[in-house]
Structure formats: C-alpha cells, structure tokens
Amino acid sequence: VRATGINWSFAPCVAVVRDERWGRTYEGFGETPELARTLGEAAVRGFQGRDLGDPLSVLACAKHFAGDGGTTFGTGAPKQPGSSERWPLDRGDTRLSEQELKDLHMQGYVTALKAGVGSIMPSYNSWNGVKCSGSKRLLTEILKQEMGFEGFLISDYDALDELPGDYKSDIEQSINAGMDMVMVPTKYREFFNTLRDLVKEGRVPIARIDDAVRRILRVKFAMGLMDSGRNHMADRSLHNSFGSAEHRQVARECVRQSLVLLKNDKKALPISKNLARIHVAGKGADDIGIQCGGWTVAWQGQSGNITTGGTTILKAIQDTVSRSTKVTFSKDGSGAAGADIGVVVIGETPYAEMMGDSGDLSLSKEDIEAIDNFKRAGIRVVAVLLSGRPLIIDQALGKCDAFIAAWLPGTEGQGVADVLFGDYRPTGKLSISWPRSMAQIPINFGDRNYDPLFKYGFGLTY
C-alpha cells in the first residue's frame, strides 16, 4: 500500500457474518465474534505498526459499525431509488437488542480500539430501523463515550444519501449523530455549503464541528502529516520489492494455509507428480479474475486475465508435475478418458456488495456438468471450489473423491497446487458453518439443533 503512496486503508472489515447469502460474506473473518476480535486486532497492528508516525505505517479503518453482517433477509437496500424491489441483505436492518449487538457485532471494535485504530467507518445498514450513519446512540454514546474511541469516523460512500429526509436533514442528522468526515464523491460543494448553512442556523453546533476537526487533526498529527519537514510522497525505493518474488511467496503461503480440505476418500490427495496424465477442467481453472473475485481492479471484479503476474491453478499444476506428466485441459471436462485423475475447478464468478446477495447458493449447471463428464470418463475426481462463501454442494460432493474449499486465492494459484500435490499438508479450518441446503441457511455455530454439512472449525489433513 505504501509503495503506491496511499497511507490509509479501509480495512479491516470486522463484520461477523451470520448469513452466507450476503454478498459481502468474504469481507469478514467468519461467523463468530471471537474471530473478529482476534483477527481484527491483528490486522490493525499489521497496518499501523508500532507507531502511526512511521513512514511505512498505514492508517487502519475498522468497519462497518455496527451489525453489517447481521441484517435480516428481505430488508436490504432498494435496488433502485424509490423501488419496492430490494436486495435481500446488503444495507438491510439488523434486528437485535443493544446487548446482543454489542456481544455479537462489536467485539472486533473492542480489540481494534485496543490496538489503536485511528478511524472507523459506520455502516450502511440500520439497527432496529435507524440507519447507523445517523444514530447518535451508536456513534457518540456507545462508540465515542462508552468505548472511548478518540479517532475519527468516516462515512461510507454516499452513505448520508440513504438517511430518510432531504439532503440537508441527512447531513444534520449524521453530523449531530457523531460523523466526523463524510465521503462525498461528487456533490461535495453542495455538502460543504449545506453544512455551513446548518452551522449558521444553529442546527449543527460549532462544538460538534470543533470535535470533528479535533479528531481528524489528532490522527493527522499522529501520522506525521502535519510535519512540514517530512516528505509525504511515495517512497520510490519500495517499488523494488512491490510485487516481488518474496512478496508473492508470502501471498502463496497465505493461500495454502487458508485452503480447507473437506473430503479425501481413499487418499485421493496428495496427487503424485509423476502420473502419466492429469486432466484439468472447470471455468475457474485458468482464470485469474475468478480466483481474485470482487474488489479486484474493478468494483465488481471480472473474469479473465485482469492482472499481470499471477498464476492460474492450471498453470500452477503444469509447473508442479514432472516433465513426463501430461496435463490436458478442457473447460467442460470433456476428453478426460484415459487420464489418471481429474482436477475440476468450480465455483462463483466475481461480485461485490449487494450484487452478490443471493437466495440460491447452488453450484451452476456448468460446474455440475464438468464433474459429470469426469465421472463418465471413469476417473478419480478432485474438486477445487473457488468462492467467497460456502455453497450448496450436495450435487457434487458425492461424485468427488476429494473436495477442497479454496475460497478466493487471488493471484497465487501455486498455493493451491502446493496442497494438491503434497508440498503443503492442509491445515485450514472453516471459519463459517457449511450448510447442507438453502433451507438450512442461516446456520451458525451455537445454534439450537446445530447440524451443518461441515461444522465451524472443520478441516481435514492428510
């Protein structure tokens, strides 16, 4: 991040994801407050380091405060302004008591504050019908007063527009609720003039403006941004290591540690590097864009060769096997007859935010057909699932000898190959319960009659 000159990251997302139909499931650490508490704190320390004034530190922003992962299905944001048709979950209403909200959805903020997080982003969602971006109870009374947050609050993208009322009343409500900085991508002149008018009219106290300015300046001084003797441009020496083999090795290590082995019948894994022929299939096998998912280059991400320097899973397999092993490929799994084993890479195509909200997490017909073509060829089948969340795999699991949840491995497909071929024994565990069917969603660890397909914390090795 610092190699680009950027000194502020809108991360970590400490959402506790309670419904995998949500399009932002992959942004959170998992379904329990324990994960948000532990990993949120670690992420803040990783970004900010020991001292925000260090030229290599990055200001962290814990988000989205609060309850973004707990919205009620069917209460999401309207698909169009004024429309009665809604997204299922994103920007919806979280219907919990205050104590439930604190216990379940605020634990990541407790530890982020402990780690010294300098900024926090209030959420688009509502809490019991009140938008978080306009809730004085949440932003001022709980976060700033009870929890002792001394940094500043930054609104989400055009979040004030989603408050009820006209733009002037939206600004009045949010600033008085405790918002310190507002993300206004286009009509910032109107925002500035309107806020100035509200202050002149006495509807926004000057003390509230002073408090917001004080909080923002506090963080800027801590970051050294007000030091006239300091160069705030990007450190060009960092370009030498940016995207280097060393950095990619760290990413590869993250990939192989995150993979979760869900099934491994008759020791299908690890695959020998010396087989005569391996047939690879699936829409995700040779697609960096699918490996990366949403929020990659473009907001929604996209399939295809979207970035240079990465390794697809197909290429990683080709680079791993012996010279005498033939690796063949067909997207639909055809032509697999005679192969010693088949590796099929299936799953989701990229999405982000509300566009990823879904009432059906079943595998696509294309994915099932690729697996079926392998089965008709009479070969052993290893499935690699690329997804931002658990999918319904009942039509696939029984047909596969081994099944790996590879999540979104990004550019480092070699990390997947490490697990496939035994260069790394799988250690990953599920951070979210895996449902048997759509009828079982939402399902979370600790539920009454808890009986998922794979439990929270599950993960095999070999």
What is the CATH superfamily label of the largest domain? Glycoside hydrolase, family 3, N-terminal domain
- Helix count equals 12
| SS content category | alpha/beta
Given as residue ranges, the uncertain stretches (5+ residues, pLDDT < 50) are none
Q: Please report the distance between the alpha carbons of the first and last residues.
A: 36 Å
| Binned strand content | 5-15%
List the secondary-structure elements in sequence, H or E. Answer: HEEHHEEEHEHHHHEEHHEEHEEH
Radius of gyration: 24 Å
Q: Overall 3D geometry?
A: globular
Query: Which strand order spans the largest sheet, edge to edge or round the barrel?
Result: 7-12-11-10-8-9
Number of separate domains: 2
Return the average pLDDT rounded to an integer.
Answer: 97
Largest sheet: 6 strands, mixed
Q: CATH top level of the largest domain?
A: Alpha Beta
CATH topology call of the largest domain: TIM Barrel
Helical percentage = 25-40%
CATH architecture identity of the largest domain: Alpha-Beta Barrel
Task: Say how many strands there are.
Answer: 12
Please give a structural write-up:
By secondary structure, the chain is α/β, with parallel strands linked by helices. It folds into two domains: 235 residues, TIM Barrel (Alpha-Beta Barrel); 193 residues, Rossmann fold. Helices cover 28% and strands 11% of the residues. The protein has twelve helices and twelve strands. A six-stranded mixed β-sheet has the order 7-12-11-10-8-9, with helices on both faces. α10 packs across α12. The chain is globular, with a radius of gyration of 24 Å. The mean pLDDT is 97.
